[in-house]
Amino acid sequence: MVIKLKIPTIPITEIEQSAFCQTDEELASKTLAEEFSAGVRWQKLPVEYMRMSPEELRQRITSARAKLGDTAVILGHHYQRDEIIEFADVRGDSFKLSQYAATQGQSQHIIFCGVHFMAETANILSEPHQKVILPNITAGCSMADMAQIDDVMDCWDDLERVLGDKGGVVPITYMNSTAAIKALCGRNNGIVCTSSNAPATFDWAFERGQRVLFLPDQHLGRNTAVKMGIGVDEMVVWNPFKELGGHTEEELINAKMILWQGHCSVHTRFTVDQIEKARETYPDIHVVVHPECTMEVVNAADSHGSTEYILKTISEAPAGSKFAVGTEVSLVNRIAAENPDKTVFCLDPVVCPCSTMYRIHPAYLSWVLDGLNEGVVVNEITVPDDIAEQAKIALDRMLAIV
Ligand code: 13P
Ligand code: SF4
Q1: Per-residue pLDDT for 3 more than 60?
Q2: Is there a domain that residue 394 lies in?
Q3: Most buried residue, 65, 127, 333, 360, by most Cβ within 10 Å?
């Protein structure tokens, strides 16, 4: 049996944004009932799961997982809680996990412990007999939500009208976007990129057009363009709430990069001031940040790259190295624990987990695994065939060049 549902978008409230921020405490999961009392609104699930202690859940997940054997595979994004990562068959960045999902033809069920756009991508790249499950259906991505397909289609129509005969525009969308936006790129000679391959996709785009529309993260777009020698005076930011994105036709004609006005609220918390403080305390520190940080922060850092890049950079460094890291705290804490011979800390002293990644509480994992053992598929993520087909074109273009 498959339970079909309408996907609700539950925006992150001010309360949820800061509900799990911490300064010196460990980020350990509590019962789901206790976490709900912090004022969050997540997916409802049977009440028995709400009250289970973290240890009960661990035992229950362990036995349900064992029963499923290799009919199921559990994928864990690096930003997931430790209590989820311990059950992941593979962990990685969004690109690595989607690629991995595409090779797991023997597993009937792919349980994606990450966020909605990642599960959608896994559905597009996996085989028809496989079902992709997102344990908590409300685990979206606030950045992906900043680019709604209707607004992007309006933008695209405006750009075609203004720029039509003045040099083509190639759409590039970051993996952190809905399948509908990936499909728009697929049918308009565009491509998908990730935080690890954005420069290669920019080369691809500039071989085919004179300018790029980059969705939905203005910071990844700007940081990549600057790295490739494009000046900030050649870029405009498209505000979807303003006529022509807030620009004159002339400004659009002169622009090489049109950056969608989207951002990640986790990564825009990092500041140059934090980097300076880290350098004052540890003169030999290496500052490594995610490219979703602002341009000022990326420029002030020593290196930048995807979550997988950050993990690899620190893991492969010699003992005694020191790292200040600008990315989500669950990953930073895990890297610190796994590298006790190095100094590893988060740039921001008040650290907040990604609120939507955090919505995957172990109770949800337990619930979906129990469901599978009873023949019930809970929270299946599917992309309509026409959208999946067009989105796959844009994904395949990316896979062909990296
Ligand atoms: P990665 O692709 O680097 O894992 O990043 C995904 C993400 O959501 C970062 O905020
Ligand atoms: Fe989205 Fe930012 Fe969370 Fe990544 S860290 S999933 S971009 S909200």
Answers
A1: no
A2: no
A3: 360
Token pair of 158, please?
A: 């405006």
Whether 115 lines ligand 2, by a CB cut-off of 6 Å, is yes
pTM of this structure? 0.92
CA 357 to centroid of ligand 2, rounded, Å: 8
d(CA 402, CA 391): 17
Ligand 2 touching residue 176 (CB < 6 A): yes
pLDDT, mean of residues 376-383 = 96
Ligand 1 atom nearest 290 alpha carbon: 3
What b/e sequence results for 192-207 when a residue is b if at least 16 CB atoms lie within 10 Å of its CB, and e otherwise? bbbbbbbeebbebbee
Same domain, 243 and 156: yes
Atom of ligand 1 nearest to the CA of 77: 4
294 and 285 Cβ atoms separated by less than 8 Å: no
Name the band, by pLDDT with cuts 50, 70 and 90, for residue 101: confident
Condensed to tens digits (0 to 9), the pLDDT of residues 216-251 reads 999 999 999 999 999 999 999 999 999 999 999 999
Q: Is residue 4 part of a domain?
A: no
Structural domain of 211: 147-262
